[in-house]
Every structure is written in structure tokens, then in C-alpha cells.
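Order emerges. As here.
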Amino acid sequence: MAEMSLLRTAMEQYVCSANEAITMKLVRTPADIDDDDKNFCPEFTHQIFGQNENIFGYKDLKIHLYYSAAQLNYYLSKSCSEKVDPARYDGVQADDVTRMIIEKLGIHPMDNLESFVTSLGKESNFTPSGMMLHSYKTHKDGVDQQFEIYKVDMSVAGFREYHEKLQTFLWWFIDAVSYIDVDDDRWQFYLLFEKFTVDGAARYSIVGYSTVYKYYAYPNKIRPRVSQMLVLPPYQRQGHGAQLLETIYIDYRQDLDVLDITVEDPSDDFIRLRDFVDCKACMHLSSFSPECLHQGFSDQMVQEAQEKLKINKKQTRRIYEILRLRVTDESNSEQFKQYRLDIKKRLNMPYQKEKSDLEKMRKVLKPEELAATMAGHSLQERHQNLEKMFQEQMEDYRKIVERLAML
């Protein structure tokens, strides 16, 4: 037992964090390879290396996964100062890191840096697939940057192969990811690129992308659902997600067959992005004027948001609450009280149904069974829960209001 404990302790020195060991990079030119400012790390590695996100068998492990910025050719390398010796540690082998990455991502990377550098010479041949829907410019660090958003599907020659490379980013940045069935023609893709020039010629770098599935909506409509959306780390917190989502919205709003636009299992970050984009659009609708907002949630809001912006009723209610907070003077005690009561009334609806269910149980349950069922359902506890939910809602809503104030 003591020997096993010593062996386990000795092997711990060969455990490292996958998140820290892996370095990724979008490479435009050979000079980028040695530019550490271009590096970024994965957000998730448990989908490849397990829940602990650890790699065993190495000291000072460094894994480099580079993508050429336009064509997305891969380079994968691994180095370490020491690798575990099975002869010294009861036959225990180091994780086959390279194999694990290749098999999970389904890629065929280069392992020769010179070959990867040579491939960069072909980046100038790349042009985005599909139809350009939107272009815009930003000004960052004294430099103007241009971006373009394209809509494409699998019928476009060469896009299937490009998508196979593009989707590998999902394993590192979207939790619980799975590859979609690209043979289903109801999938549509929206790709965002930075456009820049090298020696006077146009070049591109992938920024992010989104997938949308066109579901059927009874009786004769479609309901597009945003399934995946990713903006790569070098471009995050710069407004590109909003540009991409707005472009998707505008594209589908022009389609008379679209009933409304939904989202599949959104992350917290995406919920905030969607709230911001929807608020920005609804602000200009007549039913969301400050006067209407102070009068409460209305059928007119639901109808106008659905007809003009393809926003469903549930999301419209959320947008109403955010925009009403935006025009509510929190220093005005009566005005904020009315707002708070309006939100808590909505939050209390599940409790009202629960109360009705409990009243029915009183007629059929024995006293001891009823007491056990009603544990945790006191009026005081319900009020405490409502207040907690309200404060959490306010924290989320205020972040959107603050961002809207910057427009």
C-alpha cells in the first residue's frame, strides 16, 4: 500500500493542464509563427481529454495547433522536457496526445513546420464561398479593419471540405458539442471573415461562423433555429457576434415563409448577445416607446415584434422587461416599485400553479404525506426565492442596458 502511494505521488509530477499546455493560433504570414501575441488557448478540453482536463505523462508539455488563417490548413506539434518512463512506473504509458486530438477532431494535420510555412503561400488563392450579405468596418488600435459575412450551404463546390476544417474549432470553444449532419439540406451557414490586403492583394482570415437549421412550423411556415455560433478568441469582445447575429436576423426577416427565429440551448454569453441585438431592434418599434413600456407588456408588442422582427412571444417579454428597465428611473421609488411588481408577477406564475397543485393534493394526501410534500413551500421562503430571482434578473438586465447606452 505504501509503495502504491509513493508511486502515485511520483506520477503526479507528470500531470499537466490541457488548457495551459495547448496553444492555438491563426497564421497569416510566417512571421506570425513566432509572434506570441497571436496565441490563444482553448476554453474547453474535457471533450477530448476528460472531465479533469488533464494530460498525463509529460513535464513542461507544449502542444501547438496552428491554422492558416484563410484555408485552415493545420499544423500540430508536441514537445516536453521529460516523458514518463513505463519501465520506472509499473508500465504506465503517457497519453497519446497527438492521436487523441487527431481522432476527435477528424483532421490530418501537418507535423512539419516547413511544409506548413510553404502552404501559407497559397493563402492568396482563397476567396470565401457563397454570397456576401454584409460588410462593415471597425477601428481598433488606430487601424481600420474590414469584415464580410457570407451565407453558404453544402451545394456550393468546395464548402463541404472547408466546413470539415472549420467545425474543428467547436471542440475547443463550445461545450457539449457534436458535429451536425451536413447531408441535411435544411442547414445553412453564415461565415464571418476579416478582409485585409498584402502587397495590394485581398486576403482573408476566418473570424467566426454560425449554423442555422430551418425547422418546419405548422401549417406552412419555417422556424429557423440558430444552432451554433462561434467568434474566435482573437476577435471576441469587439462586436462581431452582434454583427453576425443581426445579419442572420435580417436575412430571415426578408423571407415571408419565416414565422419566427429561435435559438438552440444558448449559453449565458449568447443569451446576453441575443438580448442586446433584439433590444437594439425593438427600441425602434412604436409599441416599445417609453410611454408604451410604462403601461406594461401588451399584445401589440408581441404582434409587432413577431411580424417585423420574427421574435417569438417569450423573447419579446424578456426584451420588454429590459427596455422598460432602461426607461425606468430607479431613483423614483414609485416608478421602480411598479417595475419590480411587474417582473415579480411574471416570476411568481410558476408558484401560483404550484399552489393550485398543492391545494388539490390536500384532498388526497395523508397529513404526514402533505407535510413532507409542502416542505420548503412556506410563504416566507417563496418571497425570498422571488427576491433572489428578481435580483439575478436585474443583474443580467443591467448589463444589456449598459451596453445599449454605448450605442
